[in-house]
Design goal:
The complex is a heterodimer of chains A (about 270) and B (about 80).
Chain A: E1 7-12, H1 19-28, E2 32-37, H2 38-43, E3 52-55, H3 69-88, E4 93-96, H4 98-106, E5 123-126, E6 133-141, E7 158-165, E8 167-171, H5 177-186, E9 190-195, E10 215-219, E11 225-228, H6 255-268
Parallel strand pairs in A: 1-2, 1-3, 3-4, 4-11
Antiparallel strand pairs in A: 5-8, 6-7, 6-9, 9-10, 10-11
Helix pairs in contact in A: 3-4
Chain B: E1 2-9, H1 16-27, E2 39-45, H2 51-66, E3 72-78
Antiparallel strand pairs in B: 1-2, 1-3
């Protein structure tokens, strides 16, 4: 299908606050994004009219209970079946920051056994520092080709994207941690890991939250559901990189994420 | 009837807020403070007096929203 026919639903509820950047990223690339409140999607629109669903960052429902929990519970109660079908048909679902937390709470990520687990299999817990961490972070691309959101980024390339979150520490249940992590690695579901300037997997402050295995982003088994804590939409242009006057890049590092998913949709549908 | 739902972090899960409070209390001179864990309580008013139904409903609430079993457990007290 043509790029200008690709309809992207950018989903929001009260407290979402990165929807404009995500909307603009798709708009600038020639697609047809739409800002959609969850209530509109439930009552007036049909998810099957879209080819991509994005859940942007922010503080949905005030981050009460747990970040993303209320947004996820509301989606699940109304759209569970449609969402499952959407994912099963291979349409991309992306979650950034708070959106990642929502996808984990929904059971769409990591979804080690099925498309959507009944209860969360992982958690994005409070940062080790117990505070909001907001700064540029370096990420090494680890996907060997499974993730459709990062196809345009070479394997092992280090990219810069800003992080801004208080709850981003990726965790599995302690008693199953080793088993689940091994499966995540074997399935090629680890997409980005935090690194230092030398490209080494490093602890705080390079890993802003204390995430297990330095995980910053994961995808599902099929690679069409993707969640990441850092914000690619904030580095769409090279001049929103903090070092843009010193290091020349043609594009912002985040642009490739949006290009990759559009390329996938163009080819597949 | 009222239900108090207390959400606590599972054993072994780091509690950064708790550790910070412990450190602060130690610095204030409370040297006997060995460990602090944070918990969150939701007090839920229910329009029913049926204890069995209330217990079942509140458990469902915990599973659907209030607790993430990966890191948290819940305790329900009906009053």
């Amino acid at each position: 299908m043509d790029t200008n026919d690709i309809r992207v639903a950018v989903l929001l509820i009260e407290g979402t606050n990165n929807e404009q950047e995500v909307y603009l990223a798709f708009k600038r690339l020639g697609a047809d994004p739409e800002l959609l409140h969850l209530k509109q999607l439930i009552s007036k629109k049909d998810l099957s009219d879209y080819q991509c669903l994005m859940i942007p960052g922010g503080f949905s429902a005030g981050d009460y209970v747990r970040a993303g929990a209320i947004f996820a519970a509301r989606i699940k109660s109304a759209l569970r079946k449609q969402l499952m079908e959407f994912a099963e048909n291979g349409y991309p679902i992306g979650g950034i920051c708070n959106g990642f937390q929502v996808l984990v709470e929904l059971g769409l990520l990591p979804a080690l056994e099925s498309k959507m687990s009944d209860y969360p299999q992982a958690s994005l817990a409070i940062n080790d520092s117990a505070r909001f961490e907001c700064r540029p972070t370096l990420l090494k691309h680890e996907s060997k080709g499974n993730c459709i959101f990062t196809k345009d980024i070479p394997y092992q390339e280090v990219v810069l994207m800003p992080s801004a979150h208080a709850e981003g520490k990726f965790l599995f249940p302690l008693e199953k941690q080793d088993e689940y992590l091994q499966r995540l690695i074997d399935n090629d579901q680890v997409v980005f890991r935090y690194v230092d300037t030398q490209g080494n997997y490093a602890s705080y402050p390079w890993n802003p939250n204390g995430s297990l295995y330095n995980i910053a982003a994961i995808c599902n088994l099929e690679g069409n559901v993707f969640g990441m804590m850092p914000h690619p939409e904030r580095v769409f242009y090279r001049y929103t990189h903090p070092d843009w006057t010193r290091v020349y890049k043609e594009n912002g590092d985040g642009k490739a994420i949006f290009e990759s998913v559009l390329e996938y949709i163009r080819r597949k549908f | 009837m009222e239900a108090d739902v207390t959400i606590s972090l599972n054993k072994g899960v780091a509690d950064p807020e708790g550790s910070n409070v412990k450190k602060a209390l130690n610095l204030l001179g409370f040297e006997e403070v060995m460990n602090v864990r944070t918990m969150k309580t939701f007090r839920i008013d229910l329009a029913t007096n049926d204890r069995v139904k209330a217990k079942k409903d509140v458990e469902e609430m915990c599973k659907k929203l209030l607790a993430n079993p990966v890191i948290q457990s819940y305790q329900i007290e009906l009053r």
